[in-house]
Amino acid sequence: LECSIAGEVAAQCKFMPEIAQQDLRMLIRVALMRISPSSDAPELQGVFVARYDEVLRMPAHLDETTLKDPDRMDGNRMLADAALKLLDSRKLRAKKGLDWARLPALEDLVKVLCCLACNDFSIWDELILPLGLGVYPLGALLNHSCEPNCVLYYAPKTHAQVIRTIRHVKEGEELCHPYIDLACTTPERRAKLDASYHFRCDCSRCAAGTLDHRLASGTAE
Questions:
Q1: Which residue, 83, 99, 170, 180, shows the most beta carbons closer than 10 Å to its own?
Q2: Residues 89, 93, 99, CA angle at the centre, nearest 5°?
Q3: How many CA atoms lie within 13 A of 204 on its CB side?
Q4: CB 115 within 8 A of CB 85
Q5: Is the Cβ–Cβ distance between 73 and 110 less than 8 Å?
């Protein structure tokens, strides 16, 4: 479906910053999930497929984002408006089987962008080179820790998200992965997590201030 408006999307993205281009394309894909036929086709049974409602159930932190970054909210509304105009294409309207009554409203798309800001994932290849962004509602359920017991990996061909443990995990122990670069001091990590994810980390490493002195002096290994 997205291919049918690829030219219009490319023209809209031409003068946008790269991050705004990624957000617009992701927003269009998520909205298309909403109006597309059910993905419960026989060939998909038993395979997890992210749906619009699952994306919308992810934490959005609307109030916090509005308070801390009103410019971002204004930008989100501009992107949502651009997405709706692109979706209202004659080429798309001519496609059979689309339920246009389910097309999200502008404020719903603004919420989706806030959901994505806190829950999308950077997809990396085996050389740790970025390939793009992905929405993985199951992976978004994982909490953060500055002393993680797992990391995320992406299958080279399918980009399926894989959770890999990096130490022994006891039965019943929660799986946690790092949301940010951990090679910084506790105040720096907490500031990054508060700005991007709207919470204060009180994991064991933050509580103890482990490695803070060595990180600040540049001597940590």
A1: 83
A2: 125
A3: 4
A4: no
A5: yes
CA angle 118, 109, 31 (to 5 degrees): 105
Q: What is the pLDDT of residue 50?
A: 62
Closest by CA position to 120, among listed 17, 18, 26: 26
Q: What is the pTM of this model?
A: 0.80
Strands 130-134 and 121-124: antiparallel
Instruction: Give tens-digit pLDDT for 71-106.
Output: 999 999 999 999 999 999 999 999 989 999 999 999
All residues at 6 or more sequence positions from 21 whose CB lies less than 8 Å from its CB, including other chains? 13
Which residues of the chain carry a pLDDT beneath 70?
38-50, 216-221
CA distances from 174 to 22, 62, 145, 199, 219 (A): 32, 27, 10, 18, 31
**Distance (Å, whole) CA 182 – CA 187:** 11
Residue 45 has what pLDDT? 43
Strands 143-144 and 176-177: parallel
Q: Token digits for 163?
A: 């959770």
Q: Are 195 and 68 in contact (CB under 8 A)?
A: yes
Return d(Cα 180, Cα 144) in angstroms, integer: 9
Enter the tokens of residue 113. 């962008």
Residues 6+ apart with CB under 8 A from 181: none
